[in-house]
Amino acid sequence: MDGRLQEFRGDLTGYCYRMLGCPFEAEDAVQETLVRAWRNFDRYDDCRSPLRSWLYAIATNVCLDMVRGARRRARAMDLCPASRAGTPPGDPLPASAWVHPIPDSRMLPANGDPAEPVAGRETVRLAFIAALQLLPPRQRAVLILRDVLCWTTAEVSGLLNTSVVSVTSALQRARVNLRAAGVTPGGLPAVPAGQRRLLDRYCAAFAEYDVETLVSLLREDATMSMPPFAWWLRGREEIRRALLGAGRPSDGVRLVPTVANGSPAFGQYRAAGPDGGYRPFALVVLELSGDLIRDTTTYLDAERLFPLFGLPAEIPGTGSDEFAVAASHQGKSELRIS
Length: 338
Description:
Elements: H1 3-6, H2 9-20, H3 23-39, H4 51-67, H5 115-121, H6 126-132, H7 137-148, H8 153-160, H9 164-180, H10 196-208, H11 211-216, E1 218-226, E2 229-234, H12 236-246, E3 253-260, E4 263-271, E5 278-289, E6 292-299, H13 302-308, H14 322-330
Parallel strand pairs: 1-6
Antiparallel strand pairs: 1-2, 3-4, 4-5, 5-6
Helix pairs in contact: 2-3, 2-4, 3-4, 7-9, 8-9
């Protein structure tokens, strides 16, 4: 495949993920986009449109085809009212019901303008991705291209083969719909620079199942959810009661840090047996607000998510520092968000 096409893989992944709300479907969409482009590359005319515009036009058509007739992806908060502590989680919903997290490395540049990754993270937060799924597909494409990728209205109209007036109207409706959902591209809180201490405290409290410390790290109106169950909690005290009711895991846990959707995340491992090793259990994504946690989403689909995030298939039960484990596995010296 032409190397010029491959250069756009990361950017296209970010676009398709925002359109589809699922990293696995986004990768499929990008692959289909590049295959179509490669097959038709001899007919591409750079005098008519830049390569970037041509690829995004193909990707848009691929995504629109994929979402046609598909179930809208969501977070638990979009599906039902908040549960109460002690309420059974109910039956799991299929994977197609959920907005899934994505590693930053799949869609955000590792170099270039230092401000670009920060700005990009504000539009990949789980809350924003879920809100995008509320929009009709073409409105979604218009808003992403205009407000996230900063294309001009004329460029978007050319890509979608429609008028400037139609693009402007769709953009206005999309913005109104997002505001009604309480989310805007620039309205999401940035991750604080001094987050390491908060995350250290979270890891220590989680490992010891110190409920009081865990709760002290939450905002008063914090939320907690656990896909694939349409079960979620709102409020520090409700979460406290749920954690106390669940009881401390008898086999112990380990956390290995990573980054998902521009937010700190952890691979959660549970003891595998008498050999002392720990096996994947869940991916925990934290959304921060200032120096507190405003949302915790625990994804139980470890079988698919751990390989996606490059997390170890097993970690030794040595009691070693989890950040050191992550560093040795991923070549990082510390967890970095900003």
